[in-house]
Protein: 23S rRNA (uracil(1939)-C(5))-methyltransferase RlmD
Organism: Halomonas aquatica
Amino acid sequence: MAMLGKRRPKRAPSGVSGLQGRQSDSRTAPAAPLEHDVLEIQGMAHDGRGVARSSQGKTVFVDGALPGEQVRVAVHRTRKRFDEAHVRELLTPSTERVEPPCPHFARCGGCDLQHLALPAQRRHKQVVLEELLGRQGITLAASPELLAGAGEGYRRRARLGVKVDADGLVHLGFRARHSHRLIDIAACTVLVPALEALLAPLHQQLADLEAPRQVGHLELLDSDQGAVLVVRQLRDHPGDTRRWEAFAEAQGIHLARWLGRETPDFQWLTPVPDLDCRVPGPAGDISLRFAPGDFLQANAEVNRLMVGAALAWLSPLVDGARVLDLFAGVGNFSLPLAAAGARVTAAEGSHAMVERLTENTRANSQGRDLELEAHQADLASPEAVRDLLATLRPRVVVLDPPREGAEAVCRALTEHPVPHLLYISCDPATLARDAAHLVHVGYRIVRAAVADMFVQTSHLESMLLFEFTGSTRPPQGAPSDG
């Protein structure tokens, strides 16, 4: 505790900054950037980097370059089969290049596609999904539908790093590109306005703390009841706790904290709010209560479009039918489908979110008849998933897994096929991997969509609707059983 808030001795500079911020590796990285010949960018990699060939025929991935451009680059990492580089001089710009709206672009590691016009970003994401499926031998009958909203001011949750440097200065922001170094963020064009408005006051608040080194990070969350700030505090400091409470009152926000290092305890420091958000249902909006730590899609507008698409695709199939929703969260898809007449069983790994889903079902059942049961289950266990499929015999399965995908679930679905499957994914590579398991045993893709959930970045959300057409075994939950 003796060093809390005090200035530490200066350290030697690391030499790591900007695009050269990758960890040095003598086997793969040169000691200094290497100049290349002028390169013509021939395409765009799935992660948004430009792709070119050097005069020696070696593939070069170029940060910040767009297809059709001529650039002079510097290589910041060499590998056996390819080089990684960044633009030193832009000679011939693409007609789709735009001025990035964010002043922190090219330093902040967040929005890596702000230099590309929005329509081109979205075309690129549609192509990425098609190409990754194509690598698995899967061809879509038509280009994926596009679900897209606003290009700025969309992100309703964010995690901001906090660091006190050797001079005692407090920094608040996101990580630099290719680095663990923190970039101070004074503005963020993708945050919803209510959260962006907190950035400047938070910088001042952190500077006014007695023990800023005891703050690990800050979480910002927007809800229909206003903004929420969650402070990750490593050790209690009563004086700073009072300062945080005064800050919340002055800003008119809800305040909570995680207190402790190894097993932090969650505490509300302002009156406990009933946080909720809204998703579309077949007869009007449905309210979903949630708490900090629950999974919540970052883009409320695009999430509504995804739920609407799920209802449009599935409503003809689910009235009176058994639906199994896996990775159900707090009911993002479960409750709208139950309101459409489905008999829903929702499975989720988090006990807290199962409780929240049960509460949401009870709250939304007033004035309507919803048939929905929520259960906790280990969805990484093929045995657990097989038991659910064998017991329930659903006509429709809905999947919305985390980034690592749902390989165990898809393997179980090859052994216990169902007539229809809706797979929502935040990682197109794991989606393509899992889709290959399904297509191999007789599923086929009948609808596909790309949801631009993370605008200005190379990340994308996808939706695939499968139907089982294989003849190796009869599907469970056939319509006559529904």
The chain has three domains: 25-97, 133-148+277-481, 157-223+226-268. The first helix runs from residue 118 to 135.
